[in-house]
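Give me the fold.
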Amino acid sequence: YSMESPYGLGIDNKKLFICEGTSGLKTFDASKPMDIKQLQHFKEMNAYDVIPLNNTLMLIGKDGLYQYDYSNPNSLKLLSKISVKANN
């Protein structure tokens, strides 16, 4: 599977999440491991790592910590975001 710049990944209940750094977050249906299907691609964020657990996804991005509901794998829903700024 072609990736642009893979970082962290997580899988829960046959749902796969792959962080692509400056290329965002990709979600996949991994119910058939030899035929994984991409569901969504969020390009508007820098995503570095994820922790999926019980339909809640914690995502670490360049600008903060995001929390998503993935109970509907075709439509992630943003629940919250804690913004962080780097000290320069």
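The chain is about 0% helix and 50% strand.
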